[in-house]
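Quick one: structure tokens for this chain, please?
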Amino acid sequence: MFLRECKFIKDYATLLGFLELYKKISKVFDEDLTYKIQGYIKSFNEDLEGLKMEFLMLADDIMEANYKGDRVYYLSESYIEDLLTMPFDPASVKPDTDKLKVYFDAFKDLFGDSF
């Protein structure tokens, strides 16, 4: 829900766009140049797993507080399921190549049909 609107999701899409660019450049040079971006993607996925764990711990805290009193009953009923269900799946993010069109065009001009 709210994660889809976060800046880091848009930045991840841009990172995936760079991955597409580097894949094309890699074909031209016949060398894998995506290793650095793959590291960034791996780091992002590790951070995302940490975020999921934080959400689960927050949900546990809310549920624990719910047993101690009725003050957070409505909060837990309203938001606990949103916290527990992670609507963001990194595999569902499409590369944002629109921001990188300048680079794609420049490499196309430079390398021609081999790009």
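The chain has a mean pLDDT of 80.
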